[in-house]
Amino acid sequence: MDSNQGEIGGKSFYQSEPLIPRLRGIIRDYPEGVGILKELIQNADDAKATRVEII
Predict the structure, then answer these.
(1) 3-state helix vs strand vs coil in the chain, percent to 5
(2) How much is the pTM?
(3) What pLDDT score was predicted for residue 1?
(4) Which of helix, strand or coil describes residue 2?
(5) pLDDT digits (tens, 9 = 90+) for 22-54
């Protein structure tokens, strides 16, 4: 058994990318209109958020 098995941390074999360019790409590719705002609010509701701030 690997000594790192079951521990948080360890090696990551997944691709990664900078967060801001990734978010810009998601927003750029999202259909125009209020859909993205509805999606953000729905995600907050799903997460049981008590507040949503959009700046």
Answers:
(1) 40, 0, 60
(2) 0.46
(3) 47
(4) coil
(5) 888 888 888 787 888 888 899 999 999 999 888
DSSP code of 31?
A: P
CA 33 to chain centroid, in Å, comes to 20
For residue 17, pLDDT over 90 is answered with no
Say which residues have a Cβ less than 8 Å from residue 52's Cβ, sequence separation at least 6. 40, 41, 44
For 39, how many CA atoms within 13 A lie in the half-sphere containing its CB? 9
Q: Give me the half-sphere count of Cα atoms (radius 13 Å) on the Cβ side of residue 5.
A: 3
Lookup: tokens for 42: 């729905």
Retrieve residue 52's tokens: 């949503």
